[in-house]
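Consider one such protein record:
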Amino acid sequence: MASVKTNICNLALSHANQDATVVNIDTDEGTAAKRLRRIYEPTLNRVLSSFPWSFALTEKSLATLSDVTPNADFRYVY
């Protein structure tokens, strides 16, 4: 069964009217797969940061580092 990442890439190829498909985006050596691997992570990061998706939001308290001195630009170091 294809991974979610492979399915997303094949869907993108389909939307771009490309006949090519990839079997496994992580191991396929075709031109389309190589191009998709190059743009997948930056595109994913851009889409996730473009909207406050409820599944992509987490909140966590940060611990202050006591053994590091902040520089002049920052009051705290985490």
Observations:
- The chain has a mean pLDDT of 90.
- The longest helix spans residues 31-49.
- The helical segments are 4-15, 31-49.
- The radius of gyration is 20 Å.
